[in-house]
Amino acid sequence: MPGENGKGIRLSCPIARAAAHGRKVYAVENSAYCSAMQTHSRRSEAELMTIVPFYGKTKYIELGKAFCPIYYLNKSEIVMLDTGTGVIEGLPEWLQAQGLRVRAIFCSHLHPDHIANNEPIYRKFGSEIFLSEEDLSYLLENGNPFSEKDIKQWQAGRWTAAAGRRDLPYPVTLLPSQDQTVDLDGTPMRILYTPGHSPCHYCIVTPDDVCYVGDLILSSEILETSKMPYFWRYVPGMRSIYRMRNARYSRYLIAHKGTAAKEEWEDLVDRNIHKELSLYDQLRSLVSDGMDCEELLERFEDLLRISPTVRKREYFRESVRDRIQAMESIGEVEIKEGKLYRIRNGHEKERTAP
Questions:
Q1: Is the pTM of this model over 0.90?
Q2: Is residue 319 part of a domain?
Q3: What's the pLDDT tens digit per position in 17-37?
C-alpha cells in the first residue's frame, strides 16, 4: 500500500498534511486504482543511475532526457522537482535502496515528460505532490497522460487525448498562479510564477539558492539544434523569460540536461530570447496580404522543416496560432474574415520585449 512504513497505511497522509497547513488538495475518489497497481512486477532500469552533487543539499538525478533536482530535507528524506521524461522501471525501489524516502514532489508543469514517475513514487512513498491548479484544470479538460499506464502509451506514441484519463491517479496539493513560498516541515520552497511554456509554469528555488527553471529556457546543447518555438503562449512566455533574465540565484538547473552558474545565466537567457525573437521575425516575414492563418502556418512548417509526424506537432501549431494573435494584438497584422493583412506605418515595427 502507498507509503506503508510498518506503522500502518499512510494513503491519506499527503491529504492530512496539506490540510493541516491550510493547503488546497485534489483527492483521488477511487483510491483502489492506486493499490491495484501495486502488485504488478517490475524490471529494474535504475541500476545505472547516480545522484550527482550540485550545490549544498541540492543534487540531481539524470532520469531519461532530464535532470531531476532533489533537495535533502535530512539524511533520509528528499524533495523531488519533477520526476523524469519517461517511466523508469524500478525508480522508487532504487531510491529506497539509497536510504531515501520522497517526502514531496514539486511539479514545474504537467507535461508528461515532467511527471512520468509521479504515480509509482506516490505508490511507494505516499509523497505529497504539489502542482498548479491552473495547469491541472486546463489539462484535465483538454486531455493529458497522468497515470503510469497512459504515460507508457504516450512514450510509445500510442496515447491520444481522446482516450486520455480525465482524472488523476493520486491526490495532489493545488497551488495558485502566483509567486509563493511553501513551508514543507519548516523548510521554505520558493515557487516563482513563470507562465508561457504551459498555462502556469513554475520555477522552484531550493533553500540553497538553486533555481530549477524547468522548461522556461533551453540548455545550451538543445538550443543548438532546436528549431520549434518553445513557448506555448508567446507574450506571457517572453515576459517570464525577461523577468528571470534579471534573477541572480547562485546556481541554475534546467530540466533537459542543463546547468548554469550565476555568471553564465544572463548569456544563456539572451540566446534563448534571440531564438524566440528570430522565430517570431521569420513567421512575420511570411505574411502576405490575403493569406489565411492556416496557409501561414503551413508555410512556417515548411520553412522550419517540421515533419507532419512529429509528436509535438499540434503543440507547435497551437503555439504558432498564438503568435499570429500576438501580431494582431500589437498592431503588426490585421485579420479580416480570416485573412491576414500587414499593417505598415512607413517602416517595420522594431521588435521589443512584450
A1: no
A2: no
A3: 555 566 777 665 444 333 333
